[in-house]
Amino acid sequence: MAYEFERKQRITVLGGGPGGYEAAIAGAQLGAEVTLIERVGVGGAAVLTDVVPSKTLIATAEAASAIGEAADLGVQFFSRTESGRAVRPEVAVNLQAVNKRLLGLARQQSEDMKSTLIRSGVKVVQGDGRLDGRDAVIVSTGHGAGAIDFDRIEADTIVVSVGASPRLLASAMPDGERIFTWTQLYTLEAIPEHLIVVGSGVTGAEFASAYTALGSKVTLISSRDQVLPGEDADAAAVIENVFRRNGMTVLSKSRADSVVRTENGVVATLSDGRTVEGSHCLMAVGAIPNTAGIGLEEAGVQLTESGHIRVNRVARTSVPSIYAAGDCTTFLPLASVASMQGRTAVFHAMGDAVNPTEIRNVASNIFTQPEIATVGWTQRQIEDGIAQGDIYKLPLSENPRAKMMGIKDGFVKLFARTGSGTVIGGVIVAPKASELIFPLALAVEHRLTVDQVARAFTVYPSLSGSISDAARAMHIVL
């Protein structure tokens, strides 16, 4: 007697970054036959050249800052000369050792992720992939002396998660020696004497903050009135004040027309004719999605003018069998969003329960010193009448734990729906704000009121106590 068995659903994932990785794991958990194609290594740019190495560098910068600021807490560092005289030692950063460590961590994280995929039953293929219509992917792999093999992998569902690359300008072309993108900085062997950072968005601000703490002279060239122009204005003002206080030169309303190498460094020419000379330059002027030449348009997938893939809240493209996740899409370019999109795409494709991604519920963080964490509606949207809400801001300098820790900069800001008191957003500027934002993210996700947030116990003393204090100050009188 013959039996017919239902064929497993075939899922092919193009790109092994956070979105592709989570899509592959989710597919394997739901019993699909999953193939993941990755050109460089599992984890993609997020793990190998972006998030993991940059945040590891920032952790080193924070350690350097902590040593420098320890004297404010009564901790002093001295060594003794042969005569017994106490001298204060110099805090030095071995950038070669730092870069070796962070690149090693990135590789280990990539290998750990690959091992998890294989244990889960995912077939991992290293090579370049492109769509072949709506139901297959062609993979090209190199073997031997440049030989290329082509494999065609048929799929019921395709998830595209190919990420993005640093935007390049012909007038300031990176060479990996004096002029860098953020993926190239880890080849530096010593702390730059004078680092020019072009671009004051998230990436530019983070690296400018880190290299200032590591001991570089830093000049930040910003084309806008204020650094971090897309962020909360109060938060950006705090960060810019800290930058200037720490010795950074911030050139506001300045645009770099070109950056060229000199004999011993670089020179940036501004649109008003001024020049800035430095030893090195970081170009942080945005990113371009890696969507060109991979068969998307031929398959009927709609793209924006910038090349980003149009997706809906379940990560589906204009083609029902093709989904997309991560920085190559029209959603927020965050690793956490990519991961959520990847899972959501596969859950939806396989008929599992799905919660469509709500952009306003996404918590994000900028890893400057101090950090900026946000979630929900913004103050600008409230002031423009897009959302109806009340605003309450509490300086962190009033927090007892902050005083104990010597924290002088930062605040907690809450946004609550007028009338009901439902938490609709918030901003936290503080050390480790990335950890502190989670209670507000829960409140926004589950539509808690300020009174419900205030009734939860916080530890005394703690930085999180300022969240409770702000919520209590917004009490709704019934």
Automatic annotation (TrEMBL):
Provide the alphabetized UniProt keywords. FAD, Flavoprotein, NAD, Nucleotide-binding, Oxidoreductase
> Binding of FAD: at which residues?
K55, G129, D327
Q: Which residues bind NAD(+)?
A: G199, S200, G201, V202, T203, G204, A205, E206, G286
Q: Which residues form a coiled coil?
A: none
Enzymatic class: oxidoreductase
Keyword NAD assigned: yes
The FAD/NAD(P)-binding domain sits at 10-342
UniProt cofactor(s): FAD
Q: Which GO terms describe its molecular function?
A: flavin adenine dinucleotide binding; NAD(P)H dehydrogenase (quinone) activity
User: What Enzyme Commission number(s) appear in the record?
Assistant: 1.6.5.2
Instruction: Note the InterPro entries from the entry.
Output: FAD/NAD-bd_sf, FAD/NAD-binding_dom, FAD/NAD-linked_Rdtase_dimer_sf, Pyr_nuc-diS_OxRdtase, Pyr_nucl-diS_OxRdtase_dimer
Q: How is the cofactor bound?
A: Binds 1 FAD per subunit.
Keyword Ribonucleoprotein part of the UniProt annotation: no
Give one Pfam hit by family name: Pyr_redox_2
Q: Where is the Pyridine nucleotide-disulphide oxidoreductase dimerisation domain?
A: 363-470
Q: Which family does it belong to?
A: Belongs to the class-I pyridine nucleotide-disulfide oxidoreductase family.
Q: Which NCBIfam families match?
A: PRK07845.1
* Subunit text: Homotetramer.
Q: What name does UniProt use for this protein?
A: NAD(P)H dehydrogenase (quinone)
